[in-house]
């Protein structure tokens, strides 16, 4: 390319290790980094406003062509901590669920779990900024990212979607992957992987830069979030894609 490659990433704590290398100046001559929340990064990749994105996996069926260009992802094998259904009543008493507008993957996962794991059919409501304040009585809310970590200590009931998926399928769950909408050369991919790896091997430095006191980030990065794609995670991703209605995420 005769310009920098546009790379979109998610502005959440769980992404910090993956973008640490970019923020420290690695690949600064090759890459222009764009930060936003997951649904917007997905739209940018679909519209060719970026060349690579750390995107919610539910977008994959909607892409005309895509390439998984990294060995790294955002995943969990059980509890994830930052993708939860919050409620003031037990799950079987929930009548309405407010859906987080920031990630279609988490919404798609929740729909599967409501039907197949919890066996309930609440009314689902799309939202915008500030909807968390409306979680009350029989109205629950799906909340993801840093806001979910903050709500864990405030909400009476918290249902972790990563854990629920593990209970349902016995598999890990992959929330986001690095995807390009065009081929990238081998040397670029190797550099990209090395840049991702820098933060994974410098977690203490990532924590110091994050300055987030609400949740134990060392525990978050070591227990809840997993970053390396392996066969089990690929199986979990394939299982999820097989379950979702592809037409809903175009």
What does it look like?
With 250 residues, the chain is α/β, with parallel strands linked by helices. It folds into two domains: 5-75 and 173-244, 3-Layer(aba) Sandwich (D-Maltodextrin-Binding Protein, domain 2), CATH 3.40.190; 83-169, D-Maltodextrin-Binding Protein, domain 2 (3-Layer(aba) Sandwich). 36% of the residues lie in helices and 24% in strands. The protein has helices spanning 16-23, 38-46, 104-116, 146-151, 161-169, 186-200, 203-210, 217-224, 231-243; strands at residues 5-10, 31-36, 52-56, 67-76, 83-87, 96-99, 123-126, 139-144, 157-160, 173-180, 226-228. The strands form two sheets. It has a six-stranded mixed sheet with strand order 2-1-3-10-4-11. Strands 7-6-8-5-9 form a five-stranded mixed sheet. α1 links the parallel β1 (5-10) and β2.
Strand order of the largest sheet: 2-1-3-10-4-11
Average pLDDT: 93
* N-C termini distance: 28 Å
Number of helices: 9
Number of strands: 11
Relative strand content: 15-25%
Alpha carbon gyration radius: 18 Å
CATH architectural designation of the largest domain = 3-Layer(aba) Sandwich
Q: Label the overall shape.
A: globular
Helical fraction: 25-40%
Structural class: alpha/beta
Low-confidence stretches: 246-250
Profile the largest sheet: 6 strands, mixed
Give the SSE map:
Elements lengths: L4 E6 L5 H8 L7 E6 L1 H9 L5 E5 L10 E10 L6 E5 L8 E4 L4 H13 L6 E4 L12 E6 L1 H6 L5 E4 H9 L3 E8 L5 H15 L2 H8 L6 H8 L1 E3 L2 H13 L7
Parallel strand pairs: 1-2, 1-3, 6-7, 6-8
Antiparallel strand pairs: 3-10, 4-10, 4-11, 5-8, 5-9
List keywords for this structure.
250 residues, alpha/beta, D-Maltodextrin-Binding Protein, domain 2, 2 domains, 6-stranded mixed beta sheet, 11 strands, 36% helix
């Amino acid at each position: 390319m005769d310009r920098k490659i546009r790379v979109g990433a998610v502005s959440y704590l769980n992404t910090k290790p993956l973008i640490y290398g970019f923020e420290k100046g690695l690949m600064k001559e090759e890459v222009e980094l764009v930060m936003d929340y997951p649904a917007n990064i997905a739209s940018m990749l679909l519209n060719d406003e970026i060349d690579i994105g750390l995107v919610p996996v539910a977008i994959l069926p909607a892409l005309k062509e895509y390439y998984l260009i990294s060995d790294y992802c955002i995943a969990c094998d059980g509890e994830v901590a930052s993708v939860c259904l919050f409620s003031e009543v037990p799950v079987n008493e929930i009548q309405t669920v407010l859906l987080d507008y920031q990630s279609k993957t988490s919404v798609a996962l929740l729909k599967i779990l409501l039907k197949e794991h919890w066996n309930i059919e609440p009314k689902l409501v799309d939202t915008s900024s500030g909807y968390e304040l409306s979680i009350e009585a029989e109205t629950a809310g799906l909340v993801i990212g840093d806001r979910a970590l903050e709500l864990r200590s405030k909400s009476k009931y918290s249902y972790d979607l990563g854990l629920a998926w593990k209970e349902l399928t016995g598999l890990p769950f992959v929330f986001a992957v690095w995807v390009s909408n065009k081929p990238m050369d081998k040397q670029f991919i190797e550099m990209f992987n090395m840049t991702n790896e820098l933060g994974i091997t410098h977690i203490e430095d990532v924590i110091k830069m994050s300055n987030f006191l609400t949740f134990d980030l060392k525990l978050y990065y070591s227990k809840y979030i997993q970053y390396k794609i392996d066969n089990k995670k690929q199986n979990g991703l394939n299982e999820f894609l097989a379950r979702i209605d592809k037409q809903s995420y175009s």
